Structures are given as C-alpha cells and as structure tokens.
Fold these 2 entries.
Entry 1:
Amino acid sequence: MMSVNDKIDAPERPCDFCGAVNGLNRVENALGHILLCPLCMDDNNGNNDAYWRCLEGAAWSEQPAVQLAVWQALSKIDASWAREAAENIDLAPELCSGADP
Ligand SMILES: [Zn+2]
C-alpha cells in the first residue's frame, strides 16, 4: 500500500492522475514516487466513475511509478472502461501480482 510523505509546497509537476496543481502530496510506491492531489487520494471518491476517467489519460505516463499507481487505482474500479485501461498498462507481471492494495 502507498505511504504518504509531507505535503509539498513547490511540486515538480501537476497531479499524476488528474493534472490538478493544488495541495499535492508525494506518495511513495514500489517503483518510486508520484504526486497526487487530495481528490485523487480520497478513497471515498472511489465510486465516482466520471472523476476517475482521468486515469485513462494517466495510464499513458512513461513513469513506472505512475503506471503502477494508475493500475492500482483502476483495479479498484468496477467498470469495463477501467478494466480495459488497466489491461493497456504494460506492467511487469510480478508487479501485478504483488501490487494488491
Ligand atoms: Zn488528482
């Protein structure tokens, strides 16, 4: 599971999921770190299908840490578009099996 470090004042880039620029948090995962806004970190937002469509774009990131985080987020969403997007992420098989939230 992800662990959260300090809030950052001068982020190096927008939210890796949705592109928001405010209130970003640095989140570590197995492959590095990503930047997430409060909405993208909010598990209670999990049923908000329309919001999470931003992950379809985020899935194209070239950063492995982002790919992993997007894949994990998609795997929690019970929708056909989410499954398709997750399948398009080129994750190493050992990561998929070990990446359960
Ligand atoms: Zn976000």
Entry 2:
Amino acid sequence: MENPAIISRTSNNHHQLWFAFLISFLLFSLFLRFHYSNNFQSPNTVITFSINNTDSCHGRYVFIQNIPSRFNQFLLQNCQFLTRGTDQPNMCPYMNNMGLGPEIKNENFSDILLTNTWYATNQFSLEVIFHNRMKSYECLTNDSALASAVFVPSYIGLDISRFLWVANLTVRDSSGFELVRWLVEKPEWKRMWGRDHFLISGRISWDFRRQFDDLAYWGSKFRFLPESMNMSMLAVEGSSWNNDYAIPYPTSFHPLFDNDVYQWQSKIRHQKRQFLFTFTGAPRPELEDSIRGKIIKQCRGSSSCKFIDCSSEKCDDPVNVMKVFENSVFSLQPSGDSYTRRSIFDSILAGCIPVFFHPGTAYSQYKWHFPKNRSEYSVYIPVKDVKEWNVDIRKVLLKIPENEVIAMREEVIKLIPKIVYADPRGKLDNFDDAFDIALKGILERIENVREEIRKGRDPSIGFADEDHYKYTFSDN
Ligand SMILES: *[C@@H]1O[C@H](CO)[C@@H](O)[C@H](O)[C@H]1NC(C)=O
Ligand SMILES: *[C@@H]1O[C@H](CO)[C@@H](O)[C@H](O)[C@H]1NC(C)=O
Ligand SMILES: *[C@@H]1O[C@H](CO)[C@@H](O)[C@H](O)[C@H]1NC(C)=O
Ligand SMILES: *[C@@H]1O[C@H](CO)[C@@H](O)[C@H](O)[C@H]1NC(C)=O
Ligand SMILES: *[C@@H]1O[C@H](CO)[C@@H](O)[C@H](O)[C@H]1NC(C)=O
Ligand SMILES: *[C@@H]1O[C@H](CO)[C@@H](O)[C@H](O)[C@H]1NC(C)=O
C-alpha cells in the first residue's frame, strides 16, 4: 500500500495530512471490502498485502511432472534401439543438440540455407525438442497447486517405436500402461482426474489408437486407456478424437533469435522461382490409382513441374528439400501414408505455397497455427473420388492471377515463425513460434475444462469424443 509515501510527502502541511489520512482510510476500507468479497479466507490474511495482479505468469504456470527416467532419459541413453520406421534403426545422431539433430555446416550451401541455424532434424525428436523448450519456459512452477497445466514429459513416440512392429499386443501396450499407472498415483492427478495433463508425440496420433485387440490392427491402445482418455495430447497429426491436437512437424530451421527469422524471410521473399510447382515424395507402385500416382504422372509430364523422387533421392536432407521448394511457386501436398506430411512445413518454410487435396492434410489439423481462411495461404483442389478425378493441376495454378499469388506467398512467409520450433538455447522476442502457440492452445483448452468444472458441469462431456466429421469434405 502507498500510505507511508503519501504521509511523508505531505507531513508539513496539516490540511494535506488530514486529507491523506482520509484517502488512506477510504482506500483501506475499499481494500477490505474488495478482499472480503473475493476471498473465502480467514480475516487474518487481510494484513498480508500480497495480491500481485501484475504477475505476468498468472494463468500460464506449468508444472512438469517428474516422471521416472525410463519414460524419457532412458530412451535417449538407449537410442540405438529406437527406429525411424522400417529403415535405418539408429536414432542417436538425431538426439544431439537438444533434439535438433546434427548441425548442418552450411559453408557449402550458404545460398540455400543462409544462417547457421539448420539441423538434420528428425520428426520423431519433436518430443525431445518440446521438452527442452518446456524446461526453459518462463512460467514453470514447482508448486503444482499454482499450475494451470501439468506437462507429462514422456517420449511416448520414441518409446512405442521399439514395439510397433512387435507381433505381441501385451508388449506393444505395456509402457503406456505403466505410465498411466504411475501418473494416477500422484496428487496432481487427483485434482482434476488428469484433465489438466498433456503429452507430446512426435508420431501421428493413430500410432496410439488401436481400436481392437487384434494383431491385424496398427499401433498401441495407449490413447484408449481410461486414464489416457482424461489427458490431452499434442501430436504432429491429430486423430478423430477431440483430445488429440495437431501441431506442426519440426522442420530443419531452428532460429536462435528474431534476427534469424527476419533474415530468412527476407531471403525467401526475393527468391527467383523457376518452377510453377513441385512434388517431393516416393511413388507408391502398389497404389497405381492413388491421387499420389496421378499427381506424379502430371508432374512428370509437365516442364513446369519439378518431381523429386524420394525413393532414389535423399528427401531427408534439408539441403535437397529446401533447394527444390525455394525454386517453386507451389508445392503439391497429397496425403501420404497418413493424412499429413512434414513436407507441408518444409514448403511453407521455403515460401512455397502448399496445394492441398484433402481437408485432413492441414485444414482440420493445425487450427492453432494456420489462418482460418485457407485461401489466404494455400490452394485447395478437392479429390472426392480418386477414380474420376482428372483436374489439370497446371491449368488450375496458371489461372490464379499474379497479384493473388504474391499475396498468398506473403501470408506463407508470415507463417514461418509460427511453424518453426526455435532453438531452446536462444529466445525469440517478437514472435510466437510453434511451441508458444501450441502451449497457449493447450492452456486455453484446459482453462475451458476448469471453467466447466467451476460451473458444476461434467468435464468429461465432449472431452474425448470422436468427431466423425473431422476429416470429411466440405466445398467451402
Ligand atoms: C509481481 O509478480 C511479478 C512477476 O512474477 C514480479 O516480477 C513482481 O516483482 C511482483 N511484484 C510484487 C510487488 O510482488
Ligand atoms: C564443402 O565442400 C568442400 C569442397 O567440395 C569439401 O571439401 C568440404 O568437406 C565441404 N564441407 C562440408 C561441411 O560439407
Ligand atoms: C524446481 O526445483 C528444482 C530442484 O529443486 C530446481 O532446480 C528448479 O529451479 C525449480 N524450478 C522452479 C521453476 O522453481
Ligand atoms: C506376449 O508377451 C508377453 C510378455 O512378454 C508374454 O507373457 C506372452 O506370452 C506373449 N504372448 C504371445 C502370444 O506370445
Ligand atoms: C476421468 O475423469 C472423470 C471425471 O471427469 C473421473 O470420474 C474418472 O475417474 C477419471 N478417470 C481416471 C482413470 O482417473
Ligand atoms: C479468404 O481469403 C481470400 C483471399 O485473401 C479472400 O478473397 C476472401 O474474401 C476471404 N474470405 C473470408 C470469408 O474472409
């Protein structure tokens, strides 16, 4: 309270002194009234003038649950057993640099990559990158009672990668079971039955959404465990269930400071683009009639299109990938093995406008990160019936007026900071990166649940429901 200051400043004037006393008295009674009407605490707390309304972390505190190391650190120490899929098994190099992966020495590629903030980042290390960003988050607390959300820093994707191809469901499901069994015993769980807990996955949500106990079905059933249903999960691709949220795949660009972003945006803005469009991906010979097959055929048949065949060229080399996207106006982004692709984000990073064929590839996924109005930053060519689909992509793209293309590209360039994960060792001041936006999104979601509980409603309503229409087509 300011009373002593007022008194000392005015002590040689009786009128002012009385006036000060009067003001102090009024202020104090106002304070009492305010305090009593807002608190249910005992009267003796009134003398602690400790209400701090200027706490910039208010409503943003996160408690990192101190889970056993077998759910995270152990996996890094045993990275030689982790796999990227069915190809090379060794994930160890990708765990370097806080999960960013091996640094790309760009003395030889300075025209393509510009600054020294590039890494050979593997998508599955998002769990490690996110955890490291979380560790340097400005509003962490060790007092879980103060926390708005509880982060569970388990590397569930790295973990399940050891068992996805194991033909034994008990083995596939076991570490998920262990994790929830550990979590529910903690006092933090009991507060909101886990509804303020969230997880991160560098794998798509479907890897944890096995619906039947049958070896013919893919994945673990982690997200269908009752405890897990009470938690929210951020993943590179969401599922049809409301408690899985999509956030961007990591790209290879990890700015340390604002200036890295500005420099990159400026380079990309002035790029000469030789090709109208490009497709990077591997053909799927077994899916002759797939949209991917049709796209590859069109691309191969047009001198305006650059096709990068990932079955023969190294598409996980950021230098190769960036070179193509920087040189193209549009990139084609059909669904791959799942709805989404990392390539969407590599394309945006290079200022290359994405062309989508299915709403589940981006529009119904990255709602926190992408503009609501998809026409601002992308082109949509729906494919409802693959067999009958015969749109000439080149013609569609050529019909877009030049000024619209430039406006779209500018939106794409503005998206860059929002879809990259900044280096945990630096700090962006003027930008919210993909991590910041994801965290805001999840805090808001949890606050809404808390509000429901406050109002006496059942927080489970709608929380983990399946949304059958999430990935269906709409024309508008
Ligand atoms: C209020 O909280 C902010 C942020 O935590 C802190 O910087 C500031 O010193 C606090 N002010 C007082 C009067 O306690
Ligand atoms: C850059 O190119 C030179 C000459 O081709 C080569 O000797 C050197 O190893 C390259 N550096 C990197 C980091 O790839
Ligand atoms: C939480 O506790 C740990 C270990 O005592 C300490 O290192 C860390 O700084 C604390 N974090 C916060 C946000 O107070
Ligand atoms: C699956 O693995 C568990 C645990 O190792 C084992 O007890 C069980 O016998 C296995 N089941 C089959 C069908 O092999
Ligand atoms: C999940 O949350 C509900 C309340 O919404 C609670 O009744 C239930 O016990 C919780 N489940 C677990 C496994 O904690
Ligand atoms: C969406 O964006 C496009 C392109 O900027 C614009 O023409 C259109 O009016 C916008 N639609 C809405 C509903 O704002």
